[in-house]
Amino acid sequence: MLEELKHEVWEANLALHRSGLVLLTWGNVSGLDADAGVFAIKPSGVSYAELRPEQMVLVDLDGRVVEGTLRPSSDTPTHRVLYRELKGLRGVAHTHSTYATAWAQACRGLPCYGTTHADTFRGTVPVTAPLDDRALAGDYEWETGRAIVRAFAETSPAEVPGVLVANHGPFTWGGSAAQAVENSIVLEQVALLALLTEGLAPGLGPIRAPLLDKHFLRKHGASAYYGQQPTMQ
């Protein structure tokens, strides 16, 4: 089972790199086996061109490396907080993609201006509060995770599967490592669209709630009807 998880996370990291959202060794993807209480994550600083499934590092939710000879991603504590605190996550991705990172550096939440955004994110993608000096002097990556959790005090992480970390960049998540990567791709595209929209229509308000909900709920939830349904035998 854990070998399958390592392979899944390896494939997700390669997919993130192929998407063009990461440069050099930036970015990382993890995937959680909830039953085992263990997640696999990319090793720190290893080139995507050299990355192999057996190099994925297994870490438990208490932060102990349970398998692997390489050091896990420096963002591992952030992933660990998200798995512990935001229930239902099975994959987490982090990038420094251009447009989503620009919104993060501007310390602005990403408004929902249209249905492309609403298909995946049910409203504004929040931005965290900047970390204070105490957090910076402590366990920085852990405190980053805590800042993300605080940003979701009144927002459902299942309905808004991503966040902008102030002055830093985006994290996304989903029901698998592959879905977390897909949400990173969508987040980057809607960040670009929002930037262009504000240039064309300064002062524009967000999408109307009924239209937002229509697009989100046709893809998500018990009444979703987008895509193909399994054929009854």
Can you identify the CATH class? Alpha Beta
Number of helices: 8
The CATH homologous superfamily is named Class II aldolase/adducin N-terminal domain
Quaternary arrangement of the chains shown?
A: single chain
Radius of gyration: 18 Å
Structural class: alpha+beta
CATH topology: the name is L-fuculose-1-phosphate Aldolase
Give the name of the CATH architecture. 3-Layer(aba) Sandwich
N-to-C SSE string, H for helix and E for strand: HEEEEHEHHHHEEHH
Q: What would you say this structure looks like, in words?
A:
The structure is a single chain. This protein has 233 residues and is of the alpha+beta class. The protein has one domain: Class II aldolase/adducin N-terminal domain (L-fuculose-1-phosphate Aldolase). It is 38% helix and 13% strand. It contains eight helices and seven strands. It has helices at residues 2-18, 76-85, 98-105, 115-118, 133-137, 140-151, 177-200, 209-217; strands at 28-33, 38-41, 57-60, 65-67, 91-94, 162-165, 169-174. Strands 4-3-2-1-5-7-6 form a seven-stranded antiparallel β-sheet, with helices on both faces. A hairpin with a 3-residue loop joins strand 6 (162-165) and strand 7. Helix 1 (2-18) packs parallel to helix 7 and helix 2 runs parallel beside helix 6.
Can you lay out the helices and strands and say which pair or pack?
Layout (H helix, E strand, L loop, with lengths): L1 H17 L9 E6 L4 E4 L15 E4 L4 E3 L8 H10 L5 E4 L3 H8 L9 H4 L14 H5 L2 H12 L10 E4 L3 E6 L2 H24 L8 H9 L16
Antiparallel strand pairs: 1-2, 1-5, 2-3, 3-4, 5-7, 6-7
